[in-house]
Amino acid sequence: MKLVVVSAGLSVPSSTRLLADRLAKAxxxxxxxxxxxxxxxxxxxxxxxxxxNGFPGRQLSAALDAVTEADGLIVVTPVFSASYSGLFKxxxxxxxxxxxAGKPVLIAATGGTARHSLVLEHALRPLFAYLRAVVVxxxxxxxxxxxxxxxxxxxxxxxxxELAGLMGGVTAKVPRPAKAGxxxxxxxEEQLAAxxxxx
Length: 199
Prior knowledge:
single chain, alpha/beta, Rossmann fold, seven-stranded mixed β-sheet
């Protein structure tokens, strides 16, 4: 299997790339996928040229092929003006319109404040739904204060598990046991098998 990570971070080092790497590591730990990272800042000139001349350069063409052939995709963008960056959107604008149809995608974003966390729901999820990708239920947003704080690791693991499950063609499992007062869902087949064993 092949997992492709698209990072739209612009700075070096980049919190966007850091989040991308953590998501990739968590997903690869639950699959046998080979990971390839695409840094969009390295393709910015070729993306612009593609808009003006209609042809992708060598590096951009290789990146587009990698995304098209991937079994799963992790996409991470910094938040610009309460949405994804222009570079991020431009890359997916030059992708063939059916390239992501049915492909499992994990969406993620970074920003300076938690106030922009809804960018996942009002910008990224609709974009990938339009591209007919299968977007995992858990998106990951990391604000400046999230690094090193409780909660981020859990969101990363949950989202990675969901993506790994979709890539493997099975339903992702909840990575924690049920707490007191919560219900544990047991598939009917397992309940029936347990009853038969007890009979």
